[in-house]
Amino acid sequence: MESSECQVQSGIKEKPLTSTITVLLLLSIISTGYFAILPALVGGMIDYLGFSAERAGRIVTAQMAGAFLMTIAASLLIHRWNLRTSAMIGLALLIVGDMVCGFVKSYNDWLIMRFITGIGAGLIWCSIGAVTSRYRNPDAIFGILLGFQFLFGAVSLYFLPHWLPQIGINGLFFCYAAFSVIGLISIKWLPTFSAAISLSEIEYESLRTLLKTPIIIALVSAVFLSAGESGLWTYWERVGMKGGLKAEEVGLSLSLSQIGGLIGGLLATLLGKKFGRKGPIGIGITLIVGSVIAVFIRSAEIPNILFVGATFVIFACESFVWAYFFGLFSEVDPCGRVVAIGNIMLNLGMVIGPGLASILIRWGYAPLFWMIVIIKVLSVVLILAVRQREVAPAC
Fold first, then answer.
1. Within a 10 A sphere around the Cβ of 105, how many other Cβ atoms?
2. Is the separation of the CB atoms in 326 and 143 below 8 Å?
3. Residues 123 and 258 reside in one and the same domain
4. Mean pLDDT of the chain
5. How many whole angstroms from its chain centre is CA 60?
6. What is the domain extent for residue 188?
7. Which of 46, 13, 233 is nearest to 138 (CA)?
8. How many domains does the chain have?
9. What's this model's pTM, rounded to 2 decimal places?
């Protein structure tokens, strides 16, 4: 055991220990679980704390902004940090923020605390990525983490409509704090080595030549795609409730959306480049737009079967399209620099989406629908304009 651990600390590409995989799974669920159950959290803030839909969206935006800023900082600095210590700091921030949210009901307090927990979640996720990148076959590890994240979302979203009336939104955050305490206890099994690659190691001249027009277009497209997804996900539970569905029916739909996300990712893996990348991206976004419009047309009284089907299709296609987006990033830059920047753009979109949606929601849900449609159309138009023969300069 000591020999294996020593090898891990030195950063040798090898298979991770079972204990390491277990800790990574736990930390990935802790750091991304907020986004997985985001619609239920927004609904809970509205129903149990009395916040308006606009204010609930701003609170979400604050958390996403914290995660985004930490992602940028970690991308530049994490190669200098002890990853176990980084994850411990992130968990401590989550525990403090969630515990405070278990007591307070003030909008300003929630805004500050969710920003702090966003920083903590972003730090944990960057630490996970840095650890995973040092092992042999990191794609497989990320695949396992993603699968369990979808599973966590599916189970949580199914049961939350039954649990929230009993424990309230404040009680939910006490549970999250307890979950983070378990993560803190298990942190001793997380390796301490630093990341092999960071954005700070990309020289200015390399970065300048890297960001050619086609690559910039692809990155901007990723921002649009992420903004549309996060803006829709933030208020999708409210759309169902506004359309006359029961909380349990909406919960089941949201739960199935996570299964759809898992299937969408697996489908992209099975198809690979058999039909290229732009074709699947175009088809996926077209299905998303069509499903959003179908729900919008019946938004006053949404049939349960339509909401279930549309929700499943939308989030299966989101996962499917993202797989091809990052495949495209990898193709134009095999060194992984565009993928690293693409992750930052994804997080930027997750700040813009809920923020813009929270502004538009004051005029009702119709502007939200049109925002999603316009953003998705822009994202597919931009990505189709990218010439895949444009490859970034050598590493």
1. 13
2. no
3. no
4. 82
5. 13
6. 16-195
7. 13
8. 2
9. 0.83
